Structure formats: C-alpha cells, structure tokens
Amino acid sequence: MTEIPDPLSPEALAGLVATALVRHGAGDAQAAAVGRTVAAAERDGAESHGLFRLPGYVASLRSGKVDGAADPELTSPAPAVLAVDARLGFAPLALELGIPALVERARETGIAALAVRNCFHFAALWPEVEAIAERGLVGLAMTAATPMVAPAGGAKPFFGTNPLAFAFPRADGSVMAFDQASAAMARGDIMIAARDGAAVPEGVGIDPQGRPTTDPAAILAGAQLPFGGYKGASIALMIELLAGAVAGDLFSIEAGAVDNGDGGPPRGGELVIALDPDRFGHGTAWRGGSEAFLEQLLAIEGTRLPGSRRNVRRAQALTQGITLSPVNRAALTDLLA
Ligand code: NDP
Is the CB of residue 236 below 6 angstroms from any atom belonging to ligand 1? Predict the structure, then answer.
C-alpha cells in the first residue's frame, strides 16, 4: 500500500496524484501535469478543483473518453495567435506547452492569444493566468463546459459554468488574480454541498420545475443560475463564443451532447490572452500607477484583493504542508491501491 504522509508537500501530493493516474492508464507526462494542477488546488485551498476531481479524472481514463497518453501539439496559425491541439488529452499538459510560448509571443507582439482545443477540462483557470503574470504580463483565460446554467429569463441549462480568470503582475513580483465562474456558484461547490447534506444560498439555482431552491440536489437536477442575472449570463455567452467558436472547440450544449456521462471532465476549449503592458507605448508607468491604484482600493475598510485568500492558504501549505481531508485521503488511498 502506498503511504500518504500527513502533512505532505505540494510536490509529494502531485507525485501521488500522478502515480494514481498512471495506475489507471495515463501516460507519465499527462499524469504529472494533472498531478501538479490538482496539488496546486489543494495547496491553495481551492477544494472544488483539487482531489475532489481525481475520481472524475480516473473515470475518464477508465471509460476511454480521454487519451491519457496524448501528446499535445503547438502551432501558430497567425503572428499573434497560437494553438495547442490537446489531441483529446487533459487540459493541464496542453496548457504547460502553450503558456510559455504565448508569453514569448506576447512579448514580441504586445498581445497574443492561445487557443487550446480538443481537450478535457476539469480545472481552475488561475494556474495559467498566474503563470502569465509571474512572467510580468497580464493574463486572461476562459473556458466553457457542459450545459448547467440557465440563460437569463430561461429555466433550462444552456451555458456551462464558464469561468473567467484574470491575473495582473505586481511590482514586488507577486500576482493579483481572480478566477470566477459565471454561475452564481461553481458546480463543484454545489456537488460538495449535496455530498455533505448542506443547503446553498438563494440565487444559486432552480429546481427542474424552474422554482428557486436552496437544495443542492434539486439544483443539480434543475439548473444553476448565472451570477448577477443577465450580466453574468452575458459573460457566459461571451465565453461560449470565444472559447467555443473562436478557439475552435465545442459549445457547452455540444460538449454535453457528446459526453459519455462518466463523471469526468467535459470536452471543451480554452482561450487564453496575454498582454505585455510594457509594449503599450507608455513605458513602464503602468507599474507605479497600478500599485498606487490597488493601494487606494485596499485603504477602504473591509476590502481585500482577489486571490489573497488563496495566497494565505498557499503560504501556509508551503511552510506547514497540506493536510488532506479524511474524504480526500480515503479517495486517494483507494485510487492508489
Ligand atoms: P469564488 O466565488 O470562490 O471566487 C471568485 C474570485 O473572487 C476568486 O478569485 C476569489 O479570490 C475572489 N474573491 C472572493 N471573495 C472576495 C472578496 N471579498 N474580495 C475580493 N475578491 C474576492 O469562485 P467560483 O466559485 O466562482 O469559482 C471557483 C473555481 O471554479 C474557479 O477557479 C474556476 O476556474 C473554477 N471553475 C472551473 C470550471 C471548468 O470548467 N474548468 C467551470 C467553473 C468554475 P480568493 O480565491 O482569494 O477567495
């Protein structure tokens, strides 16, 4: 039996996740990239995208939906556009291939976009936008999913939970990042509430008859709602068009139609945009300006920057290690057996 230390380092956790995936049919490179993504989520306290997702990753290998040995391919269809064909593998390895190339290209052109297609996406988006901002550029990323969210005025799932992530480089080398679903609540959090028998706040979703409810199971059977009514719905709509039509992959309704229901990640593309602020014709003035702006924001009582909760959890995990929840420990033990 594989021993799981308590606590354990993010690197050790990434290695164990990769081992579990290899045992269920993944190739080393795909497994290692998913391992890093899952471990980063656990490290940052992003529960809905950490080990909670591992059984789904494994299910998609077992069902043959995902090619766990896929070798993604990078091309450049236009001077400021890159594309990674994930060849029906998981998203993390495709992103690890595409992001450094995207940053390099955006440094040349000022702005560049990366389309990742033919991939299966189950992860948070902050890792890729943070990787851009850690290199001194601004990052934006978005992906669609399967139909879960009702459009404004409708009562039927149509949009994915379609997250949008943004990261901005700070003067001290750190990063300010937000990453949010366009649904009022991420599906993973509703699933966790259903698993734990907890209610969710009002406004998160409707039951199959279209009635507002706080019962997570009824919402999973009915539809989620976008955040902010029609405003969140318009962001979800934009993401369908950019990560689906423009990136060259499926809309959420198409991904839902082809999914085999194995509980693993849905098929879907991701669009990532990088901007080099140094190339916008006003030197490096943006650095001081943005810092002064953020300082004024933080001077308002009660405020914090997005990502700061994750950063605190990350700092704790890096000094004290990660303590797995009993349910995650049991799931990982099971998948390593
Ligand atoms: P949250 O609502 O938990 O948080 C959204 C963002 O708001 C975070 O960046 C968070 O920072 C920030 N934030 C929260 N509270 C405050 C505050 N008081 N002041 C300033 N900023 C704040 O995220 P969601 O539930 O919407 O999404 C969770 C994850 O689910 C995302 O990572 C997303 O990528 C992922 N997802 C992935 C999908 C996929 O198909 N791959 C689909 C849908 C979602 P902090 O983290 O520091 O709290």
Answer: no
Ligand 1 center to residue 139 CA distance, Å?
Answer: 16
Q: Is 49 an active-site residue?
A: yes
pLDDT tens digits, 303-330: 999 999 999 999 999 999 999 999 999 9
Longest dimension (CA), the chain: 59
Which one of the listed residues 67, 85, 189, 276 is annotated catalytic?
Answer: 189
Coil, strand or helix at 289: helix
Are 244 and 168 in contact, with CB atoms under 8 Å apart?
no
| Residue 189 known to be catalytic | yes
Which atom from ligand 1 is nearest to the alpha carbon of 310? 47
Q: How far is the CA of 130 from the centre of ligand 1 (A)?
A: 14
Q: How many CB atoms lie within 10 A of CB 241?
A: 13
Q: What is the pLDDT of residues 119-132, one digit of tens each?
A: 999 899 999 999 99
Instruction: Report in angstroms the alpha-carbon separations of 56 from 14, 22, 96, 135, 336.
Output: 16, 14, 21, 32, 14
Dist CA 255 CA 250 (whole Å): 6
Predicted TM-score of the model (pTM): 0.96
Average pLDDT over residues 18-37: 98
Residue 190, token pair as written in the block: 């509703």
Residue from 178, 191, 297 to probe ligand 1 pocket by mutation (most atoms less than 8 Å from CB): 178
CA of 47 to the centre of ligand 1 (A): 11
From the candidates 48, 174, 234, 290, give the one annotated as an active-site residue: 48
CB 178 within 8 A of CB 309: no
Structure token pair of residue 104: 């390099």
Q: State whether the beta carbon of 178 lies less than 6 angstroms from ligand 1.
A: yes
Which residues have a Cβ under 8 Å from the Cβ of 212 and sit 6 or more positions away?
A: 202, 203, 205, 206
* Residue in 227, 92, 239 with CA at minimum distance from that of residue 162: 239
Per-residue pLDDT at 1 exceeds 90: no
